[in-house]
Amino acid sequence: MPAFFIQLLDKKWRPGRAAAAGLTATAAYSVAMETDQYITGNRFNDIVFLQGLLGDKDASSKRSAGLAWGLHFFTGAMLGEIYAAVVKRLLPGPDWLKGAIFGGGFIAAAWTLSPFVDRYHPLVKNGRLPHLATWTSFWQNVLRHLVFGITLGLLYRERQ
Domain residues of the chain, as ranges? Predict the structure, then answer.
């Protein structure tokens, strides 16, 4: 690995703890997702979204649902690693705030793709998923990613 990349890594990085924190934060995110869909009535669901990306045209396959859940949790673990290995030490404030900034920054960057999702995603096009580029979907995603980030920040911290 090039020296530049090695210098980016936090010397205190603990990959196992980072992955576990990312997985737990993803579980918290998933609870927030189910809750906000119930409260708002807006049924944008990340698992169904991933099923569509996996080619399941009506999100009815148990196989694609299993793969989507696996991908969802894998992504959470990888975000936990990125946070712990590189980003955490660059952020200000207490651990919960660092996590909140990380989660908010992630959704701010990813949100720029929402018009493309609305235009090209097969399940949005066929009405199985609502449009993503709406204020309701935006605030749902902000909430979900804040829950993820705060949970991650609280779980991946220096041992006292």
Answer: 13-155
